[in-house]
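User: Can you predict the 3D structure of ABC transporter permease? Sequence below.
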Amino acid sequence: MTDLWKKRQRAHFLEMLKYLRYVLNDHFVIALMFLVGGLGYGYSNFLKGFKTTSWWAGPVTILCLVVILQIGNLATLLKKADPVFLLPREHDMHAYLKQARVHSAIFSACVEIVGIAVLFPFMAIAFHLSGWQILGFGITVVILKFGQLSMALNQLYQNQVFLWWQRLVMDWILPILWMIMGIYLNVWIAIGLSIVQSLIEVLRENSQWQQRSLSWNLAVNVEEQRMLRIYRFFNLFTDVPNVHGTVHRRKYLDRLLTMVDRHSKNPYVYLFSRALMRSTIYSGLYFRLTILGMVLLIFVPNMYLSLFLQILFIYLISFQLLPLLVNYNENVFTHLYPIKNAIKNAGFNWLVSRLLMGTVILFALVVGIANTSIVQAGLSFVLGVIEVWLLVKLYFPSRIKKMNS
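Assistant: Sure. Here are the predicted structure tokens for ABC transporter permease:
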């Protein structure tokens, strides 16, 4: 089982590297550098003017620590075929799952250390804590995370997902209480209580696996859901074969489809609009990127950085919507239409340009409200209009030509 885990861990690592090449491309890395630099500059200015008497410092710190605790899940790397081929060695699977827990704990600890490092100056100023005391909060979070992972492993032997109130108590309420005691009393109290909570979960798990059989279907489903979340993130940057969208009826949008069909003589405008509204792939990408861009623009006060982020997100949205052009290529009936590709391309440009203009308007409103500046909102709108025009007139034709060739 040790060899099996190492083999799957290596294959998983190589798969993640393959997709990270598309995520960490030149455009995204440059945008990330600007974003981190802008946020760091704003954070530095905030700390310079921060007053240690602020009442909200404690609640915000506690909330941030508990949110950091939630990052990361148990990665078992189980496959659909495992219940068939590994069932005879079910008893040995516990050693495999223990290695999965250690792997997940190490990954989560790396993320939590980064989060604690970001909070370090704020906690030092707000509560006059030493470096060792802040390190104690980091240790508390790591210990609690190991207990969470043990709880996730324990549910695989109980053949049921823990109820929402159980997760609420163990993952949120108790950690919040320990952090409150650590902030306002002593950090060693938080460390001690976190050890007790995690030790209880570890002991429960050690007793459960010897008395119960592994719930294979639950374990595989949980892992598939975890991987699906990762693939959906990668799907924002490149096509991922493992992500399969679902189709929803969405009857409330039928009237909008009727309006589109009535005001356009291009049948592909209706087809592309229908695919966009009823498929979770395209609509999900569009709305997620638009909302994410709006949230980032709210917290980026620097005008040049916000304009750069707006340009980047509009480009990302347009890039992610390009596969919509070939959505009906495998439908034989569309090839029977006596319609040229130029009309199809025009229908695609018509729809995407209006979607991008909607995003431009939302970005301009957010920038104007967040910075209380009509001038900055107007500049954002004008720059967005220019970018959309360049994308439709210059970028899309070259990309469409490659896709059709």
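Residues 93-127 form the longest helix (35 residues). The chain has a mean pLDDT of 84.
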